[in-house]
Amino acid sequence: LASMLCGQASTLSEMIGWRIVQGVFGAAVVPLCQATLLDTFPKEKHATAMSLWGIGVMVGPVLGPTLGGWLTEYYNWRWVFYINAPIGILSIIGIYLYLPETEHRKVRFDALGFSLLALAVAALQLLVDRGEHVDWFDAIEIRLYLVAICAAICLFAVHVRTSSQRFLSPELLRDVNFVSGLIFIFVVGLVMLATMTLLPPFLQQWKGYPVATTGLILMPRGLGTIVSMMAVTYLVRVFDTRLLIVAGMCLTALALHQMSGFTLDVEQRALVSTGLIQGLGMGLITVPTSILAFATLAPHLRNEGAALYSLLRNLGSSIGVSIVMASLTRNLWINQQQLGERLQLPSGLLHELNPDNDLMAIPGAIVQEVSRQAAEIAYVNNFHLLTLVTLAAIPLVFLLSSPAEQRRAA
Description:
Elements: H1 2-8, H2 12-26, H3 29-40, H4 46-74, H5 79-82, H6 84-98, H7 111-131, H8 140-162, H9 171-174, H10 176-192, H11 194-206, H12 211-235, H13 241-259, H14 268-295, H15 302-344, H16 348-353, H17 364-393, H18 403-409
Helix pairs in contact: 1-2, 3-4, 3-15, 4-12, 4-14, 7-8, 7-15, 10-14, 10-15, 10-17, 11-12, 11-15, 11-17, 12-14, 13-14, 13-17, 15-17
């Protein structure tokens, strides 16, 4: 319903409002699905269940950009939202027919704990989003966000320890393996969505590709993820699950390293191959991480655990997107200034034509080329940064316990 109303929006305010509604009611779907599968399938089949679930999750990213681009280019952007209605109806019918009914439990909702956690997350997101625009901690706004984050987290911690009805059980944080999984998936989240955010503007604005072509170029990334998720079902029976995650991190780092060599003249073949490699890597990361993180968690904590796991992954993704977009904007501006200075100062002719060394006064074709080169450098720097973050996260994998170690500990 919220998706349909987004399609009906006539102003930006309406669109934002209905997107908020869509997020509020849709955010719980992923952790609920994950927790339901973990409860339904026996432990020895968790790898298969998580792989199949991951494949279903990836159908959207695979078909979404292509279908959305095609609908936008040949019909209307509103159909990007309308298309969700029949899918939602079919999902409701499937849930009603096939999902077993669970036991009803009367649990009082912890409004205070939820509000404090929501305040901390919202303030953190605003801090990251707004920091670049207001010069970070030189602005009172950012300092207020920091105070709100610290206060909300402290009050939430006290509330969890003292209240009998808690929004999150402290038992979750006593499971070292689960906490390690949270830390790792947060770091992975920093990289996971950032690349997908950088590539569409790179392809459309600087490569000049139409929306439909952009979607087709991005599709192999999702296909690679689906293939590797299918393979994980069999690979976990042969290899240490942590080694699969390390292999996935290495593939992701390799793809990002290759992207850091992109120029504005990069061929479509290179765009497709790097996307495929990164997709293969992400599939080897996400499913094994879920398997290990929930392996030692008590069954009665899985619902809360799945919600917290999803929150940390999405929070990492949101922060990663904010950081790379802020970095891109800042680097683009810095590069334009530096390239403009180098272009003007050595050239006596340009100095005569433009004695004030004003970049905007340089003839249009030169300004356009300076902007292109500045964008190329900015994107390269961002991909290089993501490569380093991915490599730096690899040691965190070994904080997780392998199934063999878990059995010995038991």
